Amino acid sequence: MNKRKTLILYILILIILIFLIIFVSWPDIYSFINGNNTIKNHIIKLDLTDKNTYEITNQLFNWLDNNVTEMWAITHSAPKPCPIKINNYCVISIYTIYDKEKNVNINKYYHRADAPRLIAWFIKSRMGACGEGTWYYVKVMDTLGYNAKTVKVKGGGHLWAELIDETGTKYYVDPFTNHFESDLNKFIFEITWVDWNDLNNIYIAQKINGKKEDITDEYTQLIKNCDLSIK
To answer: Could you give the CA distance from residue 39 to residue 7 in angstroms, rounded to a whole number?
Structure first.
């Protein structure tokens, strides 16, 4: 009898562990199964083909504004039981949020998705912050054939994008704050989450395929030519 009880206990523990693994990994599972189709269908739904860079960017900004719940403030102002935290930022939990698409308050499972492999989940869940918004922008633009990448200060929390359009013009893009600038000086003036005055910053770019590049020399030189007094 004791052996039977022990076996049942082990089975229950195994079932709970399997459930927890699926719960935590579900965004990865969903994105792995539906990733490419989700991105392609999203592009079709927003009718992004045969549009110029500005038109595409404006539509992506509008989608973010009208559909996505910005989670940074929520996760910091509404503490919840949180099984996984990184830098005091809750990456997995359940929150009561206002769903913009359904126009009601609902409980939703939030799993941070600021990684290229999880963009399909971000489109489905419509919850995120600057990391998700930037990777979303880069992924869509990359799928449309643009040269796009993310940029951040090593060890910093904010993420933005660089894009080269069909004319070869470089743009600095912050999708969650609707900033799209070819002039780095204007971009620096608008983006206050980065200490641009710190010349010890290490700037890391990352493509959608995961390849990283140290672009510190480029940014340091560009920033030296900017008027940081406007900050």
So the answer is: 45
DSSP string, 153-182: ETT-S-EEEEEE-TTS-EEEEEGGGTEEES
Residue range 9-60, pLDDT digits in tens: 888 989 988 887 887 788 888 888 988 899 999 999 999 988 999 999 999 9
| Closest-CA residue to 123 (of 96, 132, 131, 99) | 132
> Cα(127)–Cα(133) distance, rounded to whole angstroms?
9
Spatial CB neighbours of 91, under 8 Å, sequence gap ≥ 6? 82, 84, 85, 111, 112
Q: Where are the domains of the chain?
A: 42-230
pTM for the whole thing?
0.84
- Domain spanning 42-230: CATH 3.10.620: yes
